[in-house]
Amino acid sequence: MKRRGGPQIFKATRHKHHRSQKNAEPGKDHSVAEPETLQLLIEGLSEQGAGVARHKDRPVFIAGALPGEQVEVKIQGRFRRHDEAELVSVIEASPDRAQPSCEYFGRCGGCQLQHLAEPKQAKIKHEQLQRRVRAAGFDGELEVIESPFFAYRHRARLAYSRGKFGFRAANAKDVVAIEQCPLLSDPLNQTIQQLKSLISENVPDTVSLECLLSESVATFSPITETPVGVLFRVQSFGKKGSRPDKRWVARLSSELPENLCLFDIEDDAGKSELSEYQESAGDSALQYQLTENLALAFTPADFTQVNPLVNHAMIATVCEWLNPEAGETIADFFCGLGNFSLPIAAKGAAVRSFDLGADMIARAVKQADFYELAIDYLCCDLFDAKQTPSLRGISKAVLDPPRAGAKQLCEEIAQSRDLQKLVYVSCSPASLQRDLEILSRGGFKIKAVKAADMFPQTHHQEAMVLLSRD
Ligand SMILES: C[S@@+](CC[C@H](N)C(=O)[O-])C[C@H]1O[C@@H](n2cnc3c(N)ncnc32)[C@H](O)[C@@H]1O
């Protein structure tokens, strides 16, 4: 993977200003008619990776600005509790400002932190996590699971729109055409090169596609060729009558290079255009090695942990912290394909696992049967109080919810008598703090916290927290 080296420069990458989706009030125009130009001092970095300054006692978020910098900005959006501004220039740069390695940085929606020196990125994220867990009552030191800063991802979600193939821009509407991405493994970058010309030659530029790519993870096994799986979804954005045209679907599927495994071409309701082809691709063409003896069979549509190296350390941590033993029952909430369930069950405990994804649960059941492991998988909505499973007889649990967290489930766990030990795996510091506060009201104490550097160069965070009642 080529990276541009050279000395650091102190020039800001121009980040396009993107209006906050989260705090937007429906029907309200938050834009500023005549944007004011200001000079501001950046005081911190938000959990979304924007510089934070204060103006007239209101926080101002500025993408591309770094703590300690004096910057010129234009206020572009006014929200109830904050303003958002576009970075015009950096007047005095931070010594931590770095040359972004990727030419698409600032336009592509994937990375937010390439302009910040790598050790400092990790340090700031750890401090943000430390503040969250301290607010929830933990005053110990964080441990860290480290990751390489590049080439760490085994899967990617690309898009094709108006003839461009690449990643969604930060505004999520446009597509930024790319040649390669420094966060992806080499086989995924080679696949992008192969698909780029194939798609542009065969798919009309009036069609919008989502393209999911996944590479097998063969860390502990001697697989020499790592297959890459591809799944296309036609996106109609609510337009009627935009079913894929059989002619380009046939061309795309027949001309796909042999080293790639085509899982499907679907319409945006998930209906297959290639049912016979999907069968021949098979459910187990992709394998994600979890430990030396266990692997998941998966498809590009499944949730898998994007950074295998960090995931392997997380699995080891879950097993070490929960210390599963024969005779006990351990729950795996938000289990996906059984990333934690399989290694826990392999240690001898009975496992009860829960997830909303019916397809993933079906594949997880097959995999547990293949290894003859005692795992009960159940498909349920853990955000719905009526579907919360009984916690009776469960002494330990791991929960790994999506960004929204697990408020409903944590309220149930806080009231349960049997559950004594928990590992909470989180990808959102804000919902983690809220849920830890609920659990601490239920008598749980935080015993250890690990920051898992799962997503370098981006604002995303992953954390692991061990809680117990003793
Ligand atoms: C962060 S992933 C973790 C998956 C798994 N633990 C792993 O390590 O691969 C979150 C999982 O939560 C599941 N999920 C999302 N919303 C859910 C809900 N309301 N109820 C149950 N599961 C849900 C998703 O299907 C996904 O598998």
UniProtKB/TrEMBL annotation:
Name of the protein: 23S rRNA (Uracil(1939)-C(5))-methyltransferase RlmD
Top-level taxonomic group: Bacteria
UniProt similarity note: Belongs to the class I-like SAM-binding methyltransferase superfamily. RNA M5U methyltransferase family.
EC number, UniProt record: 2.1.1.190
PROSITE patterns: SAM_MT_RNA_M5U (PS51687), TRAM (PS50926), TRMA_1 (PS01230)
TRAM domain sequence ranges: 31-89
Skewed-composition ranges (Basic residues): 12-21
Source species of the chain: Spongiibacter pelagi
Active site per the UniProt annotation: C427
Keywords: 4Fe-4S, Iron, Iron-sulfur, Metal-binding, Methyltransferase, S-adenosyl-L-methionine, Transferase
One of the record's GO molecular function terms: 4 iron, 4 sulfur cluster binding
Binding site residues for S-adenosyl-L-methionine: Q305, F334, D355, D400
Region annotation (Disordered) ranges: 1-33
GO BP: any one term: rRNA base methylation
Record-linked PANTHER family: 23S RRNA (URACIL(1939)-C(5))-METHYLTRANSFERASE RLMD, RNA M5U METHYLTRANSFERASE
